[in-house]
Model the fold of this input.
Amino acid sequence: MHGPAMSGWLLMALCALTGASCLLRTRNETGEGLRAARAEALMGFGMAAMAVPAAVVPPPAWGWAVYAVLFGAASLRALWFSRHRGHHRHHLVGSAAMVYMALTMAPGGAAAQGGPGGHAGHGTAAAAGGIPLLTGLLLAYYAVYVVRSGARLIPVAAASGGGDGGGPAKGGWGARPELALACRLAMGMAMFAMLLAL
Done:
């Protein structure tokens, strides 16, 4: 993202840690949970790579095409699995949003047309953040998603701290349901921040 370097590094660290915790969750998951944890790990690491401050580490010109292809394939995978479970629809929206951001930030994309260095905000309002209506819809989606995820996290955390003294669940810390919710909440907030900086 093209914001201040410190916020870019913090966003990158948050996404990388979230991706790592989702990757660790794959050890305790099977079936549908395993597919979701893998998709969330890919999203976390992809978001971390895209959040590296461009002023400090300029991405290669072909990097945006790699992101678009990678998350385009993830979108197709999420579309295939969304026939069975609802959470894959969220993965579909997230992967499609990553494709949109990659295309917008690519040289020659909407953000690159905004001014020198491809930084958003240097040109017209239409060029600053891609397609304003689509960016706004994605921002609204992620705002609602973050609020709903946060609300769902509170009862799970309170219920898990109950009868067993709050110790780790069977299968280790990676099997705790609130970890998956916390990962999704962190990635939703990070996606909202990335879209806002677009």
